[in-house]
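=== RUN LOG ===
request id: a7f3
mode: sequence -> structure
chains: 1
length: 74
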Amino acid sequence: MEYEKIRELREDKGWTQQYLADLLFVNRRTYSSYETGNRTISPDILIELSKVHNVSIDYLLGLTNEKKPYPRKK
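=== RESULT ===
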């Protein structure tokens, strides 16, 4: 996974790691470990990150440079 992308997305919004950790209901150290690549991101957290940043999971995984998410199911 392209861990630097989640850092860039957070920094672009001017959010702290603590703010995003609170949104995801994880400890700040856990979130920091996601950004550094020291901890694997669970599918549930990956989904939440894509929703929070309004990007596709493929973008977060480094499979595309297209940020736009796919249409969601209704």
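=== NOTES ===
The two ends are 28 Å apart (CA to CA).
The mean pLDDT is 92.
=== END ===
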